[in-house]
Amino acid sequence: NTLEGHSLARVGRGTMASSFEWRFPTSDSPGEINDHQTIADALAAGGSATCSDGLRNQDEVGVDCGGSSSSCVSCPWINELHYDNGETDVDEFVEVVSMVQDLSGYTLVLYQYQGHPYKSRALGVSTTETSEGSGVWVHVVYIEGIRDGTKDGVALVDGANNVVEFLSYEGTINGASGPATGITSTSIEVFEDGNTLEGHSLARVGRGTMASSFEWRFP
Predict the structure, then answer these.
(1) Which end of the chain is more exposed for a tag (fewer CB within 10 A), N or C?
(2) What tens digit of pLDDT does each residue of 94-129 get?
(3) What angle is formed at CA 206 by the lines to CA 216 and CA 217, rounded to 5 degrees?
(4) Torsion (CA) 122, 123, 127, 130 in degrees, nearest 10
(5) Which residues pair with 165 in a beta bridge?
(6) In sequence order, what are the residues at sequence separation of 6 or more whose Cβ sits closer than 8 angstroms to the Cβ of residue 44?
(7) What global pTM score does this model have?
């Protein structure tokens, strides 16, 4: 189902093949350096790892986000999910919250119970800043046909194909292919039972600046 003008491509920064990781199909660029790819030394001579070097290093969770460094912003997280109204599902979506406005290169990859991807959607530049204050952005992706069977899930993947978060509902998934290969999902322990009212969803609640600060609630 690859769209015309899309391709598999390596992303990242470096000067050798092992510096880069493969990503799922996105806009192709034959004859040009790929989007989200920089052919250059990973770090300037004499330099050190930073939270803005375009790499996943130190102990970062994703590229330039998360980890123990107070200089790195929190990684984006999956904040809200709706997938099941009953006979006819309405406005299925996944919401991502981030501390940066531009998530170009990030992808939501939906997983079925056997651990294989079945849909993916690219993220981009948010136009919605939260009421909590400057610098917190909401990205809503409407996806028709989110599975509502047993043990399905969604992975949030950064531009270098690192899985930032892999969540599942109605059970745990072992990633068998795609970016979450070899990764066991985190079950959110709440679900929609087929009787979810229109306009209701699963959502994180609490206070903080990172995914671990919040807990999931029922619709």
Answers:
(1) N
(2) 999 998 899 999 999 999 999 999 999 999 998 787
(3) 20
(4) 140
(5) 156
(6) none
(7) 0.76
